[in-house]
Structure to design on (168 residues):
């Protein structure tokens, strides 16, 4: 397989994976392109490589910056902005977990905490079933949050050794 074919295959695969993880395909492809690029790329470079519009490139680059996965690189004498992705995959994984936790898990925990306070008649089976389901969801979500928090604080070697123990 030639380099160009490999790059194209990787961009397509990363885009598909990104869709599975809850981000749009183009955002994942922009991230993939910056991951495999040896140098920072301008918006025009991204547009040309992925055959996307300026608006699409700008929107996805900004989103990747918001996620903390891409940074800007300024070059003296250049008016263009250049973008570079974090190449350390452990840092990338931790940042994605941090963002998904902030955007998804924390709001859900707040809602479930509020819903635990729902009141109904003491002999009301519907209220009892509702309260039990909410408590179970809250317990599971809290455990997931604690696990993710532990992972975010852990270093790579501890995590990998713990993961390997689980796989045995």
């Amino acid at each position: 397989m030639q380099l160009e074919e490999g790059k194209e295959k990787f961009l397509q695969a990363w885009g598909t994976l990104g869709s599975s993880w809850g981000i749009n395909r183009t955002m994942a492809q922009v991230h993939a392109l910056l991951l495999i690029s040896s140098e920072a790329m301008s918006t025009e470079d991204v547009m040309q490589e992925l055959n996307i519009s300026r608006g699409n490139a700008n929107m996805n680059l900004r989103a990747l910056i918001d996620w903390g996965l891409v940074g800007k690189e300024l070059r003296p004498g250049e008016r263009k902005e250049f973008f570079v992705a974090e190449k350390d995959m452990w840092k990338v994984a931790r940042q994605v977990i941090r963002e998904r936790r902030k955007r998804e898990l924390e709001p859900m925990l707040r809602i479930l905490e509020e819903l635990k306070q729902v009141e109904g008649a003491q002999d009301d089976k519907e209220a009892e079933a509702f309260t039990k389901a909410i408590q179970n969801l809250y317990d599971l979500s809290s455990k997931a949050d604690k696990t993710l928090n532990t992972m975010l604080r852990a270093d790579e070697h501890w995590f990998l050794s713990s993961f390997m123990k689980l796989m045995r």
The chain has two domains: 3-85, 89-167. The domain at 3-85 is CATH 1.10.10.10 (Arc Repressor Mutant, subunit A).
